Each structure stands twice: as structure tokens, then as C-alpha cells.
Amino acid sequence: xxxxxxxxxxxxxxxxxxxxxVFCALLQDAYGHLRDKVQLRIWRRPGRAVDRATAExxxxxxxxxxxxxxxxxxxxxxxxxxxxxxxxxxLYADEILRDGFCLNMIDTPLCPLKVVTNLQEAVWDxxxxxxxxxxxxxxxxxxxxxxxxxxxxxxxxxxxLTKGIEASLDPVPRIITPTQMISKATKVPLDNILYLGxxxxxxxxYNKEYANxxxxxxxxxxxxxxxxxxxxxxxxxxxxDLITHEVMGGLKNVYAIGAGMVAALTNESATxxxxxxxxxxxxxxxxxxLLEEEPEKLAGPLLADTYVTLLKGRNAWYGHKxxxxxxxxxxxxxxxxKGTIQGVSAVDAFYKLLSQDSLSVMHPEANKSxxxxxxxxxxxxxxxxxxxx
Length: 389
Known about the structure:
Layout: E1 9-14, H1 18-31, E2 38-43, E3 49-50, H2 52-64, H3 66-74, H4 78-86, E4 91-92, H5 93-98, E5 115-116, H6 119-123, E6 128-131, H7 135-148, E7 157-160, E8 166-168, E9 174-176, H8 178-186, E10 193-197, H9 202-206, E11 211-216, H10 219-229, E12 234-239, H11 242-265, H12 270-291, H13 300-312, H14 314-324, E13 334-335, E14 339-340, H15 342-354, E15 361-362, E16 369-370, H16 377-386
Parallel strand pairs: 1-2, 1-6, 2-5, 6-7, 7-10, 11-12
Antiparallel strand pairs: 3-4, 8-9, 10-11, 13-14, 15-16
């Protein structure tokens, strides 16, 4: 990256959800000892309070882990968690993140992180920026970041972890992915923006369960970054097809909500879940072929990413809880302890896009021209439930 000796590589995480926090913690664990060569910090908004019940649970997590307990005592930080459990003190999400606790993933202690709550201070001199924001917040936050980078000579490299999309209907119907949102908001060329995705459950990866991922983008950055990010338990491959991987990243969240519903309503029937898997992957392939001329095949890490999200992601959890009546749609798509359920906005975006007559296809049985959404019965049903209610 053209860094001179004595000028450290500055890596900044933007957004501190479960995966964004874990990704930064993995880098901190791998490179944090090289203080003169690598500096890592993470930005999250200040002021998010930890409620009393979560503070009590956090206290129990701390006391169940001797290594965490000793670390907090050494840092003179243990007392505030005692006070938080008793209700004598309000803990805040940015405060506990400094001690290695992500509000969306309380049961998995991380390494301590350098947390910055001022966005300009966090990003102004960053060499590598990691986007861990929900897709619904990416445009706004990176629009603000773009204003801080107006005077920059060299564009930073951005790695987006975000899975979600928007639909644009004017002048022609099309998908807008998070990397495209970032490029438009910051004027950073797409060549400097990459997407990383894979079959990743954040807590399992931090606990060193074997996993893999793909980093997608131009040759210049994806190959060296794949090497830089690779760890013995976290294998990073590279791929040039950025857009297919991002679209699939959004689609898998859509169909994961349905997978959770099917699992709940059939009492975890393996047969029913496998039928659903066959049908939803067919719809995903159909949609990707509509949106891309030569999309990457739904195989390898792409298929594995879909599988694990349908199996155990937060969107599948959300669908399961809805079907059981333990959550209601009135609670919205931002759930305490889980963060944003990105599949909900993605359902709306894909439905709007595929409802456009200008994308019409021939229906094989009715022998007439129809909007593509008519060929996607699962997507239509999810839209009826989640959007039309």
C-alpha cells in the first residue's frame, strides 16, 4: 500500500454488530502485537444503553470465564459490571466493546478493542475500512464519511461485510449493492471496494471453529487481502465476481426467514426443510440469472453461505420466532440482542424490482408474459407476510 517505515497500516471498522466486531477482533488478535506496523480501531455510535437484564447476563458470562474475569480485574474494569448488574450504573455499548463485549453477541467475549465514537476521528486517515453496517445504514454513514475524505489524495481500500440490497426503478430497474452505495457516497472507485462473505456465524468463527470465506473484487487488492486476512481456522479465498456474491448475500437473508418459518411450523421436519431448500435455491438461481448475464454458480462457498444462513443465521432465527408467535412484526426489524434483520428490507427490494413489467418473462405454463416475481412463489409469500402483513 506504499506505506513508509514508521507509518503504520491503519485499519478501521465502521459499525460494531456481531460480524463487524468479530472481524475486527480477529485482525486485532492476528496483528495487534505489531503495534508499530498495524493500528486497528472500530467506530460505533455512542449512547446505546445496556438494559438491566442484559447487564445481569453479561455479569454471569464474565464470571463463567476465568480468563475474562482476570482480564477485567487487571484493567480495573470489573466493578462497573458489578454495579451494572445491581442497577447502580448504566453501561453503554461502546463502553463494553472496549472491554471486548459486543451488545449483539453477549455470550462470546472478544479481545479488547480500541473504540472511537467520533466518526471523523475514526476514518479520516484510514488505509483499510471494514464496513460492518447494515445495508439500510450504509448509504447514510458513508455519505458522511465521504465528506471527511474530500481532501484525500489516495483512496482507501474498503472491505464490505454487508449483506443486503436496495432496488432502483429509475431510469431502469436494477439492484444497488452495498459496494455500489459506498462508491457513490464516497467517490472511492469500485476498484478499491471489495466484498467479503461466506458461511460465517460470527460467534463460532471467533471461537476458532473452522470456516472459509471469499473476498471479491479486482485482482489488485483481493489476492493480497486474501493472504492478509487468512488465519489457520479462517480460510479466505478470492473471486472476481463481486456483484453475484453481493446479490446472493442479500438473497440468502430473504430465504433464511422462510427457512426459519418452515422449521418452526413443521416441528423441524428434515424432509420439509430439504424441500424448502431445493425450492428456495431454485428461486435464488432464477433471480441471479435475471440480474446478471454470467453469474457465478451457486456452488462452493456461495452454496455453503446459503446453507449456514438458512440453518442458523439471525434471519432464520427471526422467521422461527415469528412463526412460533414469540416475536411480532410490530416489533420492527431491529431486534435487541440480534441487531438488524436485513432480510426484511431485502424482501421488499427484490419484490419491487421483480414486479416491474419491463423485466417481463414468458410464463412456461400460462404461455403469457408476466413480471418475474410471478415465477417466485416463496418471495411473493414472504412479501405478503412481512411487508403487506
